[in-house]
Amino acid sequence: MAHCGNSNVTIRQTPIQAFYAGQSIFITGGTGFLVKILIEKLLRSCPNVSKMCLMVCSKKNKSAATRLDEIFESPLFGRVKEEMPNFREKIVPVVGELYKVDLGFTKDDRDLLAHKVRNLIVKIQQKYFSYK
Predict the structure, then answer these.
(1) Is residue 18 part of a domain?
(2) How high is the pLDDT of residue 2?
(3) In this structure, is residue 8 part of a structural domain?
(4) 25 lies in a domain?
(5) Residue 24's closest CA among 43, 44, 47, 52?
(6) Is residue 75 in a domain?
(7) Three-class SS string for 58-118?
(8) Rg of the chain on CA atoms, in Å
(9) pLDDT value at position 4?
(10) How far apart are CA 124 and CA 122, in angstroms?
(11) Strands, DSSP E only, in 1-83?
(12) 56: burial class by Cβ within 10 Å (0-12, 13-18, 19+)?
């Protein structure tokens, strides 16, 4: 529960805010449309999330770090930037590939996920195109 300035207004946490407070979350599919919206919503609505570990792969000659930078430059994150200028401190990029052994994670990333993360949000999509 928090108090708003000098007023008598009391702001209560929602059950979702209480659940994620102090927690670290691992999210896959972070460059996809729906997951970007989820990330923005969690950052904005659950400011007490400890860390968000985002699995991102390199793609089309862009590194995972570059892809994350592009995501956060999107107008979608404008409000988050205004309300939480240091939100990027909560973001931990985890480079991974679905088709690799151990998802291509480094030992440090595996240790981080095993010991710090208790919440997973997984979105996996494969696209197959057949041209005739």
Answers:
(1) no
(2) 52
(3) no
(4) no
(5) 52
(6) yes
(7) CECCECHHHHHHHHHCCHHHHHHHHHCCCHHHHEEEEECCCCCHHHHCCHHHHHHHHHHCC
(8) 17
(9) 53
(10) 6
(11) 2-3, 10-11, 24-27, 51-56
(12) buried
Instruction: Please report the pLDDT score of residue 5 as a whole number.
Output: 54
Say how many domains are in the chain: 1
Task: Name residue 91's beta-bridge partners.
Answer: 52
pLDDT mean by block of 10 residues, the chain; 132 residues: 58 89 88 87 94 86 86 95 94 86 89 87 62 58
Contact indicator for 29, 67 with CB cutoff of 8 Å? no
CA–CA dist 116, 122 (Å, integer)? 17
Half-sphere exposure of 75 (CA within 13 A, CB side): 0
Residue 75: what residue type?
A: P
Residue 49 pLDDT: 94
CA distance 33 to 25: 18
The domain in which residue 73 lies consists of 31-122
